[in-house]
């Protein structure tokens, strides 16, 4: 599978990448989003949702684990597993219902759900580079590879 690394000069660049992903990610797609606190994970999700036409506030679901959205004809589930103590908590919260062929799941802190979560189609790694950030997009499936290829070709 392929991966690309891109610079993200500021918050606007992170939002723009999320908006680009909204055009490319189909239903039945799982994205893992990695990065330290403040790296831009929720900003990327906000850009994705805005790219689908969402106008409301997008907050990190740190305490609720998942925030559902119905936008652009899609079911989108934004997970933040930062406070997850045990991956089995996802089972008790009905987590399997979210991962289906009709939904898009965007998962922050996926390492906290290791052993329970379905495999990702795309991994996104956000990191600091001085005052800016960089992103690595890594395809983990054929669907993910198609997304990364299009992003690469657009650069």
Looking at CATH, the homologous superfamily is: P-loop containing nucleotide triphosphate hydrolases
List SSEs in N-to-C order.
Answer: EHEHEEHEEEH
The tally of strands reads 7
Shape: globular
Helix content: 25-40%
Question: Can you describe this structure?
Answer:
With 155 residues, this protein is α/β, with parallel strands linked by helices. The chain has a single domain, classed as 3-Layer(aba) Sandwich (Rossmann fold). The chain is 28% helix and 30% strand. It is built from four helices and seven strands; from the N terminus they run βαβαββαβββα. Strands 1-7-6-2-5-4-3 form a seven-stranded mixed sheet. Strand 3 and strand 4 form a beta hairpin. Helix 1 crosses helix 2.
In short:
The protein has 155 residues and is of the alpha/beta class. It has 4 helices and 7 strands, in the order E-H-E-H-E-E-H-E-E-E-H.
List keywords for this structure.
155 residues, alpha/beta, 4 helices
Detail the topology: elements first, then pairings.
Elements: E1 3-8, H1 11-24, E2 29-34, H2 41-51, E3 66-71, E4 74-80, H3 88-92, E5 103-108, E6 122-129, E7 132-139, H4 142-154
Parallel strand pairs: 2-5, 2-6, 4-5
Antiparallel strand pairs: 1-7, 3-4, 6-7
């Amino acid at each position: 599978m392929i991966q690309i690394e891109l610079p993200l000069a500021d918050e606007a660049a992170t939002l723009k990448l999320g908006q680009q992903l909204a055009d490319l990610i189909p239903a039945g797609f799982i994205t893992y989003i990695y990065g330290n606190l403040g790296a831009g994970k929720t900003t990327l999700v906000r850009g994705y949702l805005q790219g689908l036409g969402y106008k409301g506030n997008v907050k990190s679901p740190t305490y609720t684990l998942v925030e559902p959205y119905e936008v652009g004809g899609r079911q989108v589930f934004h997970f933040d597993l930062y406070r997850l103590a045990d991956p089995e908590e996802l089972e008790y919260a009905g987590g399997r219902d979210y991962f289906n062929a009709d939904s898009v799941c965007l998962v922050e802190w996926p390492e906290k759900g290791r052993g329970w979560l379905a495999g990702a189609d795309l991994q996104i790694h956000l990191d600091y580079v001085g005052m800016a950030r960089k992103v690595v997009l890594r395809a983990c499936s054929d669907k993910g590879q198609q997304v990364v290829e299009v992003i690469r070709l657009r650069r």
